[in-house]
Amino acid sequence: MIEVKNLTKQFGSQTVLRSISETIRDNEVVCIIGPSGGGKSTFLRCLVLLEEATDGQVIVNGVPLTKKNAVLMRRNMGMVFQNFNLFPHMTALKNITAAPIHVCGLSRQAAEAEAMELLDRVGLADKAHAFPSELSGGQKQRVAIARALAMHPEILLFDEPTSALDPEMVGEVLSVMKSLAHSGMTLVVVTHEMGFAREVSDRVLFMDNGVIAEQGSPAELFGAPKEERTRNFLRMVL
Amino acid sequence: MALYLEGVLVALKGVPVTVGVSFAATVIGILFGFVLAIMKLSRSRVLGAIATVYVEVIRGTPVVVQALVFAYGIPQLLQAHGVAFKWDRLIIPAVLCCGLNSAAYVAEIIRGGLQAVDKGQTEAAYSLGMSHSLAMRIVIIPQALKIALPTFGNEFVALIKETSVLSYVGVVEILRRGAIWNAKTFYTFQAYIGVAIVYMLLTIPLGRLIKYLEKRMSTG
User: Which end of chain B is more exposed for a tag (fewer CB within 10 A), N or C?
Assistant: First the structure.
């Protein structure tokens, strides 16, 4: 479970997050939607301390996240990035086994066996020895998801995972994400894919101008948005 | 015409020493330059300051001055304080000096390489629970070195020319060979043209080779 209390983030004179308080419950699938610059990515990145908040707290399973414990806490929270960020000098298999071997001390055999299972799960067992440069965008993202899963995190964060993909590859990635959602993992997904948000999430947060302007179940938020700005946004994207 | 050829042949005799010293100095330069780069990027202010001062002093003074201080200055200073010191062979301070000099430049090359690695790589490494040093070791540094590799090649070529300075400290490399022949025969123009030609025979093919390797690495 992630508790966020009065999370504030300023970049110079710009306030990107305005004292946000929210809770992400276990096994919840939360999608964050909203206009660009609204603070969605910054919020997500604060959850793993890839951004340092100016004020406020992030509390994961009862433990406040600090610079000192971030390295340890991050083992439990995986992240999938918009630009994949696969390690180009390693094969798909090595990308996935790197952290389990060097961070968790797993043996090479155990790590590779599990990595192959994960690759199979995302439909890329045959690409185990391919380098990222040999993979399509959709394949890269699926490897990135497998890489994050290899650390057995309780929570997986997605920062616009399909925004950098050609349209025909979006489906294969969303499909993997859907199966993760159905398996009961806690997912927090910043996305522009409204269809996915509607179909899979337990809760949708609409973020605008540094605050969570509105939230609700997909039916509530998409079907009967209460706020004017939510309606405006949805009108533009749907 | 035969004199020009002789000038070249005389200069050619210095090639083994020049190439040997350049190679040794490049290796020292890369190893020590790497240490300096890490020091500069470390969180320790003291280490960073030491590295910065070192780089500024070395890059701010001519190599020939550094060579003279090393080869002649240090023994004299030690002797003045009663320590009987003399370099066994002047090639030792020569190689050290060029290596330590090269290190200052290599440090900046490596620092550039490290900063050229995409920020997303560090973020991905952190997100997997890697510490900063682990991320550097298995994700960032390998990529930085790959980026910096062509520049190392250029450093080697630069050193080949720079080692000409060592003729000042008694190392018989290419330039010194030419200078000795000139002192004997007074064919000054032929002597130094011969020297120039031999340097070009080394640097031009090497330069092409590095360009070729650079191309292969960027497409691979």
Answer: N
Check which CATH number belongs to the domain holding B209 and give it: 1.10.3720.10
The number of domains in chain B is 1
For residue B35, the tally of other CB atoms under 10 A from its CB is: 15
Tokens of A181: 């959602």
pLDDT tens-digit series, residues A107-127: 999 999 999 999 999 999 999
**Residue A19 confidence (pLDDT) above 90:** yes
CB-CB: which of A78, A89, A102 is closest to B130?
Answer: A102
Q: How many beta-carbon pairs below 8 A join chains A and B?
A: 62
Query: Contact A44/A159 with Cβ under 8 angstroms?
Result: yes
Closest CA to A205 of A180, A182, A222, A185: A222
Percent of chain A, pLDDT > 90?
Answer: 95
Cβ atoms of residues A33 and A196 within 8 Å:
no
> Ramachandran region of residue A103, left (φ > 0), alpha (ψ -120 to 50) or beta?
alpha
Are B124 and A85 an interchain contact pair (Cβ–Cβ within 8 Å)? yes
List helix spans (H) across chain B. Answer: 2-12, 15-41, 45-60, 63-68, 74-80, 91-116, 119-127, 132-135, 141-162, 174-185, 188-219
DSSP state of A4: E
pLDDT along chain B (220 residues), means of 10: 88 92 92 90 88 94 92 90 84 91 92 90 96 94 87 90 89 92 92 94 92 74
Question: Whole domain around residue B170: which residue ranges?
Answer: 2-219
